[in-house]
Amino acid sequence: SEGYAIDVTIPIEAGPQTIVSAVKFEGDIPFDEKKLLKEIKLKGEKPFNEPGLVEDKDRLIRYFADNGYPYASIEASWTPAMHGDGAIIIFSVFPDDLVTIGNTLIVGDVLTSQKAIKSAMRLREGDVFSYRKIIESQLNIRRLGPFSSVSVTSIGLEDHAKVIHLRIKVEEQRPFKIDMGLNYSTDENFTGSLAF
């Protein structure tokens, strides 16, 4: 039997595009609003979209976490403008406590000097907390030498502490080494062992 192809045309008429008419920040904001505006993509006169609003909220949370406020929370919403087809974006900011860096502890069987490891850190005691600088510090330490693993762990975040201590754990690759042994017994004659 022969088949039949049917073309179905569905007319779609696009409505007016919603444009961001204003961006507002509410709450106790510790930063200049101009700095926060640089972090987001949805700005005045740009087309508005819901997924972009969620992404901008995440960008702002990362900005706060990189500048001393890892416990900050942000709510993003929007409301139609009074006139026209615009959207007013509102970010409600709850920064919580300012968090600083405390002591730095280096653990592991370390051959590289602790002074060199601490110099590679992007964070010092008294600095404001920054997730980004912790990652950068971990990369800097790895570049120092032949480490098999490097980890920088923040201590105190789970307890909502205002001072966060850093734990640096490094494992260095050992130089190639061979241990040889030679034994004699009446039962086995000469026996040897080889260890790497």
Structure in a nutshell:
The protein has 4 helices and 8 strands, in the order βααβββααββββ. By secondary structure, the chain is an alpha/beta fold.
Structural commentary:
- The chain has a three-stranded mixed β-sheet, covered by helices on one side.
- It has helices at residues 33-39, 50-65, 114-119, 131-142, and strands spanning 19-27, 73-80, 86-94, 100-107, 147-155, 163-172, 179-185, 189-195.
- With 196 residues, it is an alpha/beta fold.
- The chain is built from four helices and eight strands; from the N terminus they run βααβββααββββ.
- The relative contact order is 0.13.
Question: Helices, strands, pairings?
Answer:
Blueprint: E1 19-27, H1 33-39, H2 50-65, E2 73-80, E3 86-94, E4 100-107, H3 114-119, H4 131-142, E5 147-155, E6 163-172, E7 179-185, E8 189-195
Parallel strand pairs: 1-3, 4-6
Antiparallel strand pairs: 2-3, 5-6, 7-8
Key features of this structure:
3-stranded mixed sheet, disordered C terminus, 4 helices, 21% helix, 196 residues, 8 strands, alpha/beta, single chain
User: Helix/strand/pairing class, anyone?
Assistant: alpha/beta
Secondary structure: helix percent:
10-25%
Shape: elongated
Uncertain regions spanning at least 5 consecutive residues: 178-182, 188-196
- Biggest pleated sheet: 3 strands, mixed
* Number of helical stretches of at least 4 residues: 4
Radius of gyration: 29 Å
Average the pLDDT over all residues and give the rounded result.
85
Termini Cα gap: 75 Å
Which oligomeric state applies?
A: single chain
Q: What's the SSE pattern? A: EHHEEEHHEEEE
Main sheet strand line-up: 1-3-2
Beta-strand percent range: 25-35%
